[in-house]
Records
---
Amino acid sequence: MRDLDSDIFLGVFSGTPDMPSRTYHVPVMSKQVLASLQPTQGKLFLDGTAGGGGHSALLLESGAEVICLDQDPQALAACQERLKDFAPRARFVESNFRDAEQALNKIGETRPLDGALLDIGVSSHQLDEAERGFSLMREGPLDMRMSPSAKQSAADVVNTLSAAELTRIFQEYGEEQNARRIAAKIVEVRNTHPFKTTFDLVKTVESVAPRRSAKHPATKIFQALRIYVNDELDALRHALNTLPACLAPGARFAVITFHSLEDRIVKVFFREHSREWNDRPEWSKPRRNPNRIFKLLTPHPIAPSEGEMQRNPRSRSAKLRVVEII
């Protein structure tokens, strides 16, 4: 599994003359997103992961209206500041995209959406801010919460869960081969020195799994903890199941993922809900798929261009999948 976050953790995201290294959000595959969503004047879109407003700005510049969601209040504030000149066509709601339907109700929006975009994962700004605790390359509190409402920080997780549960988290969300050894070491260390900072965890992982390649041995551990703390995969599954009901016939639903765990969920969901026929060995003939709600527009995921990957290393593992509501 290639995790794009690891490129940023390892300092690859260093910037270019036209892309500052500490930018809040560089919109990934902007041309592909616009071509997929087809924004025009009068259309209504949901950006479920607005971040610093990169993708939202592109949609607004095309004349569309955009409802910008983000569970991170810092990100939403930056988005609102960036897009203030687009008012009232840009509206902002602090919300996880899993609760998009409730967010629309909150602002009294009853129109069906003409499109929705989810850009899954951690932002470069969140990694840049040491106090957020996302980056293993910067010392800060071991936090990793995208939303203030998240129940547990990463420090809470590593200081309280059993070795067995930590092993499961590292295996399931990080696909870490040394999960059992790392979990056992964490439990041993915390008995005398509870984990407080990102570097506390980095040093413990390094003591069990020394660095032998460009990828830091703690990369997958940080990824797994971030996914667990923010319940990212369940949030994605919930959004996939509920957002289509908010979309008009002919609307486009686009999702950008950055690692195989997310992409697999999106790929399977889009495939199972766009297939026209189901067939099983025990059936005499194929049957129409009662769960079909999509037309699949991307049989294979759209990837960024070589030029974009060079300009913006964050895009390297990005995959864009798009469906149309039928």
---
Amino acid sequence: MSRDTLSDLLRSVRVRGAVFYYVSCRDQWSAEAPPAREIAEAVLPGCEHVMEYHMIAKGSGWAALEGRPPIRLDTGDIVIFPQGDPHVLSSAPGIEPLRRTADWVFATRNEAKPMPIAYHHGVVDAGAPLPAEEATMVAVCGFLGCDLKPFNPLVAALPRVLHLPAERSGEWVARVIEQAVVESCSPRPGGDAVLGRLAEMMFVDAARRYLDALPEDATGWLAGLRDRFVGKALSLMHERPERPWTVDELAREVGLSRSALHDRFLKFLGAAPMHYLASWRIQLGARLLRETSRNVATIALDVGYDSEAAFSRAFKRTVGMPPAAWRRTQAG
């Protein structure tokens, strides 16, 4: 590909990371996390979609998601819940969890982060970690946020749970976890920014590993990205969104017939090529409205519309308000 389409999308939907909790446990323990949508405004204000993750720095445990078998977690493992599902972490499957409610998260939102939490013998102590030598499991836990609107095909393409075992991760992932522990235990100026970037790097690596491991018959945006023909077409549209693309022209560029390219897009993305292009143009336009001072007419041309009026109609149809009005909501 001539363009890194995954990176292009990640920049556009503003992936942001934060580390919120430094969790240390011993003996029997179990903790439940509420649905991410219920605590999104407390942990990552302004994010339309929030995911929770856990990096296991020491020891082992289990992650449980309703409707799925529990997952064994070991030192160096990372587990992410891309759809924001409620879940349980525990020393063994089936232990009744202590519930961390949304009210508790909001009540502690202004506490210094990462906030230490200790679990032991059914007791939870917020604000003080266990001594490192006493803890049988240590985890660095936090959140990742991103935009869903106007267009984000990545979130829907990710599973309910992403488990990254240490043995299938590169050495740099172990160093990321080690650094997250250091920054969590010894706060320094700029620590929040460092932890946030570490979380974002970890998420990008997780998405790449999930992409690499997809079965041959997988569908969805990531599977389409991997497909020789759909992936090239996506790259072309992301690289030159302002070009007056047609299905015929895209098909010629990727080496397929018009009907074959159309069918492959429907198979992988559930949408026709021109429908995807229209959605991507609106997403790119939204990013330019938010991040630049260019006027609407210039942005319209930049993303492939021949007039401000045509762009404004399409933007309002997708977003629910005209570009200028949407820009004001983002500034506020």
---
Amino acid sequence: MKTLGITALVPPEIVFACGFKPFDLNNIVPTSTTRPKNKLCAWTAIWREQIMNGELDLDSLVVVAGGDCHNALVDGQRAAEKIPAFYLFYPFDGNKEYLKSQFERLSLFLGGITDPGIMKTVKSVKENLMKLDQLRSQGVISSELGFQYLISGCDLQGDPTAFKEELSRIPRERGGDLASMHRVALIGVPPIHHDFHREAERLGLHIVFDEMPFEFIRHTGKNINELAESYADYTFARDLKYRFDFLKEELGKRRIDAIIHCTQFACHHVLEDGMLREHLQCPTLTVHSDLPGPVPEQLKLRIEAFSELLWRK
């Protein structure tokens, strides 16, 4: 099976149905030791550098050029010098017919759909991931363990059947004493620090919602029409009011105490911080990161201080 590198949310339903194995390039970044010479955002620069150096075994690449990441458009064009690339554009206005045409072009780029039935399998896996998301919210599993599987909703670790079996074996155990912890939503880009969820929980913050992984698992369908209908509501590609209204409703369901807004150096999402705070009206800690690795000591102190502040309130 050929491997397709993806730079953001690309329907794995289509990728698998076309006989390819999706591989989310972002998932290698938090544990990467690559330090690009030229970069704006470490997320896109690291996978660009590894593709250019021949360190990743990829047959093709899909760059999400219209949607949640603008830096990927330039770094993706650079990477396209090495492997064939397709540029996927999500509609800002949620136009379903436009998105359907994008998905049809994507399937043609991949050689056409050869196994439409696998879309049902992917849909079933995502339904299990939604259940896992609820278990984490209830404190049945730790926020770190839940995140490790939810973030894989983008590519299902390259094998939906094996991934589904692995999900069935996740131990059900308390993720921590929720009575002594604050319920926190992690908004924005996923943290580039690989131990972020573990450190947050150690410091009294149980992350019960991850915005980006939740987008990975809530969109699905059994054919191109259903996929276009669902993915057109991908909030990162829509206007900010649409996205914030969705978040406000979702965070209300989860009884959130506070928000951690993860931002990345040289990312346009940094500019959203003030609007997010104004719209969601919730105690918020903004985390501004650059390179991958463990949570820096200075950031640990900020998280600890934020946790203590919540208790005083």
---
Amino acid sequence: MNNYSHGGAKLRAGVAGASGYAGREVARLLRAHPAAELAAEFGSAQPPTPEAARAARLDVLFLATPPEVSMAAAAAAETGVRVVDLSGAFRLGAEEFAHWYRLPHAAPALLAEAVYGWPEKNAAAIAGARLVSNPGCYATAALTAAWPLAQAGWLAAGPVVCDAKSGASGAGKGLRQDLHFCELAGNCKAYGVLEHRHTPEIVRHAGLAPDQLLFTPHLLPVVRGLIATTYLPLARPAAPEALLEVYRAAYAASPFTRVLPPPELPDLNGVVGANYCDLGLRVHAPTQTAVVVTSLDNLLKGAAGQAVENMNLMFGLPRAAGLA
């Protein structure tokens, strides 16, 4: 399934929700992609029908739609159409989804089929997937910090604390008073404290204990960009260079995750407009805590860029095609 052979023809891609921020970015990337073309655009309120997908002769469909629309669209997609979903519809189990999204999951059979689309961890599985669930922007930043230490056995049992801040585009295009420019300009505020839906996503895919994560997102008075500082308790003393080697090994095959040399730490200017996630760290020796800073563009590596990266893997294309 992971080889693309249409006699040299470009992949035909459709985007549902192309008028939203993430969908618009997917469409922009597809228009410049060397091996794909934007063959169809659909609205975000109603899923594209099988007839519409058939008429457009789609190879792949991107869903930048609300979860309930994504569920219907993914279920209705023809067998030969592969799907990359940018909503949270397929990131959690059915019970978790019902709890965090306050609605029942309408396509539970697809949950078992969906592959979590974080290429740094799941590249091989993504290559063979029919349905890929694109990670959230906050989750991508937090996973980049937590997953290598968790899988390598470096984490103690204490709480992992993630303090993350995103540009306002991460909240979507809907009109809300708290997202008006006059509310955000010169301001920074926390939201979803102890109840943000990215929390179980991070816990599940980082390999943390169920109650181990304290995650607090904030809105920054900028359009795009996300920076997260994650505090990770260590099971044993470690020098910064030893932990950096853990991260370098974990991301050696990942062209879009950059482990910065000390004493560099990431910032928004280094990632906005690009599909990178940058990482830097410090170690607080008295408390045996790793302080890991990650940054990314919430609309690219946190959404549309990662979605195109997943498409590349699904069709056997170079991972950086259309992104470098």
